[in-house]
Automatic annotation (TrEMBL):
Gene3D superfamilies: NAD(P)-binding Rossmann-like Domain (3.40.50.720). Belongs to the short-chain dehydrogenases/reductases (SDR) family. It comes from the Bacteria. This is SDR family oxidoreductase.
Length: 262
């Protein structure tokens, strides 16, 4: 299917690896010009070279840290310089450290709130006027299946990503008449470096092997396997398509059926 977004311009946050890198690649495959950002110039450069070698949408990158209070003005300047404007914004952030509710000390909570919530909302608000003026825009925010069913041992993630749910739903109704959609994509167990890190932490906490942790995880998924970055990225890219113009304010689960709630 042709998503009819060739030539559009997209900023993909936290795209040096994992889900962000996958989404940037999927959008570029549709002819979208993408700007990647993150904290590893080496990985970002490699991602851009791989995208540009395909000869479809062009890719460029900029170093950026969502935890930096000056993140928003810096990335907005880069969008103007490297893309010339914005049509698609993919809000993606790294996950916080594992822990219980009692581990959410004020300094840790404040630090991750800056990178996972405040930077996302402030950046979106800053880029919205251009989308409104042109009468077209796509905002896709990557969260976690933990906003549907809180994940044990990830209290900080459950809390902060949950805050984005109410924000996205509110925003979607406010901008719909301007031709802008705002949706969320919720990954379940997608095979990324983040999953490797979480499985390792779980193994250390429980005394089990990583293999046993992984086997138990797969057994709990109706699809009986982990998802791939490409599968997740394809779902996110569809929400940026012209065909998805009447889909807004939703949360799309990409979890192999893991969430048992309706």
């Amino acid at each position: 299917m042709d998503f009819q977004i060739s030539g559009k311009r997209a900023l993909v946050l936290a795209s040096s690896r994992g889900l962000g890198a996958g989404i940037a690649s999927a959008l570029a495959a549709e002819g979208v010009n993408v700007l990647l950002c993150g904290r590893s110039g080496e990985r970002l450069d490699a991602n851009c070279k791989a995208i540009n070698a395909r000869g479809k949408g062009k890719a460029d990158w900029v170093w950026a840290d969502l935890a930096d209070p000056e993140f928003v003005p810096g990335i907005v300047a880069a969008v103007k310089d490297k893309l010339g404007g914005i049509d698609i914004l993919v809000n993606n952030t790294g996950g916080p450290v594992p822990g219980t509710s009692e581990d959410m000390h004020p300094d840790r909570l404040e630090s991750y709130f800056q990178s996972m919530v405040l930077s996302v909302i402030t950046l979106t608000n800053t880029l919205l006027p251009e989308m409104k003026e042109q009468g077209w825009g796509r905002i896709v925010t990557v969260a976690s299946s933990g906003v549907i069913e809180p994940i044990p041992g990830l209290a900080l993630s459950n809390t902060l990503r949950g805050a984005l749910v109410g924000w996205n739903k509110t925003l979607s109704a406010e901008v719909a008449a301007s031709g802008i959609t705002a949706n969320m994509v919720l990954p379940g167990r997608i095979l990324t470096d983040r999953i490797e890190e979480l499985d390792g932490a779980n193994a250390k906490r429980t005394g089990k092997s990583i293999e046993d942790i992984r086997a138990a995880s797969v057994a709990s998924i109706p699809a009986r396997r982990l998802g791939t970055v490409e599968e997740f990225a394809a779902a996110a890219a569809f929400l940026c398509s012209q065909q998805a113009s009447y889909i807004t304010g939703t949360m799309l689960r990409v979890d192999g059926g893991s969430a048992r709630s309706l």
